[in-house]
Structure formats: C-alpha cells, structure tokens
Design brief:
It is a single chain. The chain is an alpha+beta fold. Helix content is 38%, strand content 16%. It contains 6 helices and 8 strands. The protein has helices at 2-5, 83-102, 118-131, 162-177, 192-226, 243-248, and strands spanning 8-15, 21-27, 32-35, 44-48, 53-56, 61-65, 109-111, 149-151. The strands form 3 sheets. The chain has a 3-stranded antiparallel beta sheet with strand order 2-1-6. Strand 1 (8-15) and strand 2 form a beta hairpin. The chain is flat, with a radius of gyration of 29 Å.
C-alpha cells in the first residue's frame, strides 16, 4: 500500500543494547523527511511521531523506493499515473448517483416572451448560479417569475455514455496496476490453460520483480550493514508451478 500511494516504504531498525537489530517497525511514509548535504543525497531523516520530530540516521532505516527517474530520494507512487482517471471516476459516480436519486435534471436554457429589465435579468441569473449547477446543487425544484420558462436541454445523461466511459476507466486502472482483466473475472470463454498462463504472467512479470527488488534492499541495507556480507534474503517463488513441465523435466 505504501508503494501504491506514496512510492516509498520505510522500516526502522529497533536495536538491542549491543546495537544489533532485533525487529523492524514500519513507518508512515508521509511522516518521513529526508535531508541531504553537498556530498550526500541523504545525510539523515526526521520522523514526525505526532508530538515531535525524531532524528534517524541512515544506518537505522531501510528504504524501498518505487523507482522515479526524476527523484533520487523519493519514490513515485503507482497511483500517481492515473490521478486524472481516478478523479473522473469519482465525478462519474457522483453524477450518476445524483441523477438516480433525483430522477431528472433542470435544463440549462431559459426563455421568456416578456422583456426583462437589467435588474430582473441579473437577479434571475444570480439565483440560477447560486441555486443550481454542480453535483451538490443539481435537480433542485425551481419557481420563476416574468414568464421565465426552462427549455428542455438537447442532451441527457445518455449522452455522457457513462457505461462505456467507466469501462475505459476500468481498463486504465488495470493497466496501471498491470492486472489482467482475466483475473477480475471479466473475460468470457476462459479455460484452465488460459487462467494458469494469466496467473503465471502476473506473478512472473509483476510480483516477482517487485519481490526481488525488496529482497535486494533488505539484503544490502540489513544483512550487509548489520550482520555479514555472506547473508542474503530471498523469498519463495510466488509463480504457479508448471507441474507438467516439472514432470517432463
């Protein structure tokens, strides 16, 4: 989650009286501040505990960054690639919810056979702007004088084509997280071989590289710094086994 929403993952080493790490505590990425110097990207960290700042030396913290080509200290949040898509998705849901709650909407075009004075026109316009428009003030009941009448708009909620747009939004989200639609149960005519191959590709192409990177970080920043250079950390392979291939081999 920290990789997804912050792009950084921090672990604080808790040491015993001999200075040996005995456990690690995950830190809140939004409370970690890195400070550099003229010779180092990071000289020390400050962590906000809620009541004050605590200084942390680089040797006492493990830092995993989701790679960002524009920053040598902070990582790039995965979700940052689809922030606009996420905003549009929330707006679409809000608009659809309001439409179905109210059952219609007030048109945006008004007409009258009477000649409106500048005062009446300004007042009507100000009231329309103040009481209608936007998600929170849509679909309100209106009462007009001066024979002012709304004209049915030439568009409707169907013109927004929300169904197709939300399908495109889903595809954008899946692409960002590199999740195949097969894994969401959205595909038809799927068979066992296809399902196994999709799961294997997701594990081999997405999960395994990330886990390998975390292994390397823990090895270099924990094992080699605080223990022995011959030690290393390695996770068990998460990719589904090819039993037929194993048997053939």
């Amino acid at each position: 989650q920290h990789f997804s929403f912050y792009g950084n993952w921090y672990l604080y080493k808790v040491r015993d009286a001999m200075g040996v790490p005995r456990q690690v505590i995950q830190l809140r990425p939004d409370r970690v501040y890195a400070y550099g110097s003229s010779t180092e990207f990071v000289s020390y960290y400050h962590y906000y505990t809620g009541t004050g700042m605590v200084r942390i030396e680089p040797k006492d913290i493990i830092v995993c960054r989701y790679p960002d080509v524009d920053n040598e200290v902070k990582g790039k949040a995965i979700i940052s690639n689809i922030l606009d898509v996420s905003d549009v998705d929330r707006m679409q849901l809000a608009y659809s919810k309001k439409f179905y709650q109210k059952g219609g909407f007030l048109g945006q075009v008004f007409t009258t056979k009477e000649k409106m004075s500048a005062t009446d026109f300004s007042r009507a316009k100000a009231e329309l702007q103040a009481n209608y428009g936007g998600v929170d003030q849509s679909f309100n009941v209106a009462l007009f004088d001066n024979d002012l009448q709304p004209i049915k708009s030439a568009y409707s909620i169907k013109d927004a084509d929300i169904t197709l747009s939300r399908a495109n939004t889903r595809d954008e989200v899946c692409a960002c997280w590199q999740v195949n639609k097969f894994m969401l149960g959205l595909a038809e005519n799927i068979n066992r071989a296809t399902a196994q191959e999709v799961s294997k590709q997701f594990a081999d192409g997405v999960i395994e590289p990330l886990m390998d990177y975390i292994d390397q970080v823990l090895t270099t920043q924990l094992c080699h710094v605080d223990f022995d250079s011959s030690y290393f950390i390695k996770h068990e392979n998460t990719s589904p086994r090819d039993l037929d291939g194993d048997l053939a081999y």
